[in-house]
Amino acid sequence: MFQLHGQEQWEMVKDKDGIKVFTRTNTIMSFKEFKAVMQISASVDEFLSVLYDVDGLTKWGHNLTEAKLLSRPDEFSQTYYAVAKAPWPYKNRDGIYGNVFDWDENTKTLRVAIELLEGNEGSDRDFVRLDGFGYWQVKVVSEDEIEVIFQMQVDPGGSIKAWLAN
Question: Considering the entire predicted model, what is its pTM?
Answer without folding.
Answer: 0.87
